């Protein structure tokens, strides 16, 4: 019978990584949710193997800024010259996202890590306890 200890360790690692990623994703989503909303104009599509980004130009308190949107932005929904609602962090216009993408799927992957970690640790914990109890009863490892 294989020991459930490696499964428990992997579960705890998934749980720890998921907790860190989830914390970062929630903090990021909250900062953008409370960010500065404005309307930008799609300026360029860079379509290529490495630079498939959507760029927008928008106004800030300090002037006009042109910045790329994150890679996860849906490029099919807009064309060059179209207006698009964007949100940037207050005081940091270089960090901008499309308003429609705020919190959209950002918590899915980190939540998956947490669920997998809880599942692995939850199922291997009682198995580890039962194995230890069996070994103690059999006189092995006491």
Shape type: rod-shaped
User: What is the N-to-C succession of helices and strands?
Assistant: HEEEEEH
Which strand order does the major sheet show?
A: 3-2-1-4-5
Low-pLDDT runs of 5+ residues are none
General description of the model:
- The chain is rod-shaped, with a radius of gyration of 23 Å.
- The chain has one domain.
- With 142 residues, it is of the alpha+beta class.
- Strands 3-2-1-4-5 form a five-stranded antiparallel beta sheet.
- The chain has helices spanning 5-33, 108-138, and strands at residues 36-46, 53-60, 63-68, 83-89, 92-98.
Quick overview of this protein structure:
The protein is an alpha+beta fold. The chain has helices at 5-33, 108-138, and strands spanning 36-46, 53-60, 63-68, 83-89, 92-98.
Features:
142 residues, single chain, 5-stranded antiparallel beta sheet, alpha+beta, 5 strands
Please specify the SSE layout and strand pairing.
Layout: H1 5-33, E1 36-46, E2 53-60, E3 63-68, E4 83-89, E5 92-98, H2 108-138
Antiparallel strand pairs: 1-2, 1-4, 2-3, 4-5
Helix pairs in contact: 1-2
């Amino acid at each position: 019978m294989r020991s459930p200890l490696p499964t428990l360790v992997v579960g705890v690692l998934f749980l720890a990584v998921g907790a860190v990623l989830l914390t970062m994703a929630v903090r990021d989503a909250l900062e953008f949710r409370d960010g500065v909303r404005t309307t930008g104009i799609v300026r360029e599509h860079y379509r290529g193997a490495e630079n498939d980004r959507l760029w927008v130009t928008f106004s800030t308190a300090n002037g006009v800024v042109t910045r790329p949107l994150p890679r996860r932005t849906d490029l099919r929904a807009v064309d060059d010259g179209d207006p698009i609602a964007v949100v940037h962090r207050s005081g940091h216009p270089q960090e901008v996202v499309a308003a429609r993408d705020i919190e959209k799927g950002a918590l899915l992957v980190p939540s998956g890590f947490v669920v997998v970690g809880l599942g692995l640790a939850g199922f291997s914990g009682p198995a580890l306890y039962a194995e230890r109890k069996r070994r103690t009863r059999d006189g092995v490892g006491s």
